[in-house]
Design brief:
With 251 residues, the chain is mainly alpha-helical. The chain has three domains: 52 residues, no CATH class; 85 residues; 99 residues. The chain has eight helices and three strands. Strand 1 and strand 2 form a beta hairpin. Helix 6 packs antiparallel against helix 7. The chain is flat and about 100 Å long.
């Protein structure tokens, strides 16, 4: 009986080549019961023949670790935002022969890059993340006000809004990190944080524009967000932890 030396299939009598893989046939004895199949030709994986491809299991050394994936993501973000930064600056220089509007767009691009990349760089180190983002974003807001040669709106608007946003983000992040079981409670905490930021924003605007506090739209936003957060807290701690929603609603 003739077997293919590459894929091991039985060949028809007199076949010179395997019709499956095209390898030249070699006469071999069929495997005996006590040989454990040793007479079969050694099997070669698709990865050995053609390299790693679709449908073949990845080798352990080919699997990227979580840290490597985060590093690659940071590199891709840096390249993408770096291209945007260069295009913005070059377009401004080409059109105006000086830095004008590109100063503001560049600050915005750097700020978005910080927000997107720093969580990957300081993964599971929330306080280092906060210590990096809070002063960096505040400095960018200051620069956007100082580009015209004078400080006008930063002290009255930019600094209070930046500080309130940073403090609220730190508080929400600390509360999220303290949760042993995360789920709907995380969404609820973010909704509460958004309500706090809206109230702080209207407080800053009213104090600078009118000199007095007269809450309006931020209270409406809070009335919409806080009850929704309360429902999510209830579902998370009283319902989801005890029974699945499928059982609760008989789905």
């Amino acid at each position: 009986m003739t077997y293919c030396p590459r894929c091991g299939v039985v060949l028809a009598s007199g076949s010179a080549r395997c019709p499956l893989c095209g390898a030249a046939s070699v006469p071999r004895k069929p495997p005996s019961a006590d040989s454990g199949g040793a007479d079969y030709p050694p099997q070669r994986s698709a990865e050995d023949e053609h390299g790693a491809g679709a449908g073949t299991p990845a080798r352990e050394e080919d699997v990227l670790s979580s840290a490597e994936r985060r590093r690659i993501a940071v590199e891709l973000l840096s390249v993408a935002f770096g291209i945007g930064l260069a295009v913005s600056i070059l377009a401004d220089l080409f059109a105006n022969r000086r830095f004008s509007w590109s100063r503001y767009s560049s600050s915005a691009i750097v700020g978005v890059w910080l927000v997107a990349s720093m969580p990957l760089i300081f993964y599971r180190r929330p306080w280092l993340l906060f210590a990096t983002l809070a002063p960096s974003l505040t400095a960018l807001v200051f620069l956007m006000d100082a580009f015209d040669g004078r400080i006008s709106w930063f002290l009255g608007y930019g600094l209070p809004i930046a500080v309130s946003f940073a403090a609220t983000s730190a508080g929400v992040g600390a509360l999220v990190g303290a949760q042993k079981r995360k789920g709907l409670n995380v969404v609820a905490l973010f909704l509460c944080g958004a309500a706090v930021v809206c109230i702080a924003l209207e407080t800053t605007l009213d104090f600078n524009l009118r000199g007095a506090l007269s809450y309006g739209w931020s209270v409406i936003v809070a009335f919409a967000l806080v009850p929704t957060a309360a429902i999510l807290f209830y579902l998370h701690y009283r319902v989801v932890n005890r029974a699945t929603l499928r059982k609760l609603f008989r789905l």
